Amino acid sequence: MTDAIDLIAQTFDLPRTIPDVLAVGAFLKNTVCAATGGKAYVSRDIGNLDTVEAVERFERTVGDMMARTGLSPVAVAHDLHPDFHSSRFAQEMGVEAIAVQHHHAHVAALMVEHGLEMPVLGVSLDGFGLGPENQSWGGELLWVDGPRYERLGHLATLRQPGGDAAARQPWRMGAAALHALGRTDEIATRFAEMNGAAVIAQMLERGVNCPSTSSAGRLFDAACGLLGVYLVAEFEGQAPMQLESMVANPQIQPDGWRLSDGILDMAPLLDTLVGMEPEAGADLFHGTLVAALTDWVMDAAGRTGISDVAFCGGCFLNAVLREGLADALERKGLTPRIARAITPGDEAISLGQAWAAGLLKA
Question: Which contacts of 182-187 are long-range, i.e. CB under 8 A and separated by 24 or more positions?
Fold first, then answer.
């Protein structure tokens, strides 16, 4: 058995008792959760399920968690993405498999931490999660009531040239932003030092291998690309982390966003960032994004009458974003629900999956 000391990383009291459920987590920063007897037991971070070693750790952890907790699951919850190893594993376990959308699970995890059973608004900002119609989600405003959710809005989509490659090459998202702004002819010269810049411009023009995404992570990458902050990163999130570290005094561009039918479009801000000095751009990007998100959430709160707002997803590891938005919403009378006991990142996904699936089975 996996070492008992580090098998279970966290234990949570559930808002109410649900039937025994196993949840197998996300693809990145995978954890496993066993929900039984009114408690949820979350494993340590297993890692990304992209190597044989990680997959083997995952499968051992599932067995060890069930043995350690005495779990006899009536269902196993997994991510909506059908190609993750964890999803396939869940579907082969011989019990009912329940798919839980990634950003729904993020919000549900915060509801467990804060003991919430009434509907909440969830601002879920991260790199990627599959939507119900195979869309690339990542900048989502959700209404969540336990096992149910509704997408109230999302960030305006950007093309992602080369697909996943753009997550580690922010210049590609900078190019996508230029294309969205009608400035495609500037891509080859602005990113002249990048091999293939002219080809990327053609790909964007023709829509070839450029899936659309509402990802907040890719929005951060676009800003970094336009400002010249880590045009090529060693790992996903490196450039946005550097951009956050450069913030000294957040500034707001009053006309830096557009909001229509729940879609938050940051194109005016991105247009302004082109050619700015990185430090000034970091201040303007963060300050304006916080103001725009505040406007977005207040609009949804007015339409739904909900005042609790869950902050979810890896983008909320950014303290400037997290604390700035929390302060702004509190001043307007809303209640931010911030991940304190758990991380806002994907390690929390299994907890949210277990809660959402368990309520369906209750």
Answer: 183/274, 186/274
In the predicted structure, residue 3 carries a pLDDT above the cut 90? no
DSSP 3-state of 99: strand
| pLDDT of the residue at 1 | 36
Output the furthest CA–CA distance in the chain (Å, rounded).
61
Q: What is the DSSP string of 223-286?
A: HHHHHTS-SS-SSTTHHHHHHHHT-SS----TTS-EEETTEEE-HHHHHHHTT--HHHHHHHHH
Point out which residues pair with 309 in neighbouring strands: 121, 336
- 12 is written with which tokens? 């949570």
Residues 197 and 225: their CA atoms lie apart, in Å, by: 12
CB–CB of 351/33 below 8 Å? yes
Contacts of 29 (CB under 8 A, 6+ apart): 45, 47, 48, 345, 346, 347
Looking at the chain, how many residues does it have? 362
Tokens 């790909």, residue?
Answer: 203
Phi first, then psi, for residue 130 (nearest 5°) are -75, 130
Which spans in the chain are helix H?
4-7, 52-69, 85-91, 102-114, 170-180, 187-190, 197-206, 216-227, 238-245, 267-273, 278-304, 319-331, 349-361
Give how far Cα 319 sits from Cα of 128, 243, 290, 315, 344, Å: 20, 12, 11, 9, 12
What single-letter amino acid sits at 32? V
**pTM confidence score:** 0.96
C-alpha to C-alpha distance for 44 and 30, rounded to whole angstroms: 9
Q: Which of 193, 196, 174 is nearest to 184 (CA)?
A: 174
Across the range 21-26, mean pLDDT stands at 98
User: pLDDT tens digits, residue range 188-234?
Assistant: 999 999 999 999 999 999 999 999 999 999 999 999 999 999 999 99
